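FORM 12-B: Structure-to-Sequence Request
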């Protein structure tokens, strides 16, 4: 689902939470609807199981989840969605990947192209930046999960590839093709993660040390995420501690 990047934890972007929450729910509902068409049974449908788990993690009401499932299996629902990926560069050459789920390629392409153009970016060809990233599954858990040794051992036993310790949480990574199995095993061992999803992880993050450039890139990300069709936005941008401090002070 929506990429859980470092940008999500920058305080100055926490305004308009209601609107962002509504967009998040809309994206999760679309994922449930699409994955539910494959099979309405979560036990036999890993993609649907993950979508429902994300809905619950984000405190989506049970009746909203059930309505999305009914829409997926309803005979009146003949809308066809498809996964589409866009790649390009933002200000200062920051690499950006946009994952979308759309029923109208022309509309989505137009929205994405317009955002790139308006906010100082350039939409590229397919695979123009994907080679800079690895596709990984990511699960975040609070630090209260346990000490580092315990978390590393747990991650190892479920087949994870790496664990990173952040100021506010643990991030557990696995390969894309083991994502669903690792998620199921983690839930059995330590409970549901705070967040989970497939992400594009930059092989060599590009550190941004200029707050003005950071603001420009973040505005582009916000514009892309405003589209109902866009499920996640990933970049290779890494903000320096000094830039994060400046952004927080400004808000």
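FORM 12-B RESPONSE
SEQUENCE OUT:
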């Amino acid at each position: 689902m929506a990429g859980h990047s470092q940008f999500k934890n920058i305080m100055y972007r926490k305004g308009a939470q209601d609107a962002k929450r509504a967009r998040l729910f809309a994206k999760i509902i679309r994922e449930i609807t699409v994955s539910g068409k494959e099979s309405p049974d979560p036990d036999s449908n890993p993609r649907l199981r993950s979508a429902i788990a994300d809905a619950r993690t984000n405190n989506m009401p049970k009746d909203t989840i059930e309505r999305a499932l009914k829409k997926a299996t309803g005979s009146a629902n003949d809308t066809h969605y498809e996964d589409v990926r866009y790649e390009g560069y933002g200000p200062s050459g920051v690499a950006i990947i946009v994952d979308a789920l759309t029923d109208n390629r022309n509309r989505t392409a137009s929205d994405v192209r317009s955002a790139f153009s308006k906010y100082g970016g350039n939409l590229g060809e397919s695979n123009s930046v994907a080679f800079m990233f690895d596709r990984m599954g990511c699960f975040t858990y609070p630090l209260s999960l346990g000490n580092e040794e315990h978390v590393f051992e747990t991650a190892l036993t479920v087949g994870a590839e790496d664990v990173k310790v952040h100021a506010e949480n643990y991030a557990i990574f696995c390969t894309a093709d083991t994502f669903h199995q690792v998620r199921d095993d983690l839930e059995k061992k330590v409970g549901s993660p705070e967040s989970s999803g497939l992400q594009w992880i930059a092989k060599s993050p590009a550190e941004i040390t200029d707050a003005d450039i950071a603001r420009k890139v973040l505005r582009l990300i916000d514009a892309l995420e405003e589209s109902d069709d866009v499920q996640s936005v990933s970049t290779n941008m890494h903000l320096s501690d000094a830039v994060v401090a400046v952004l927080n002070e400004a808000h």
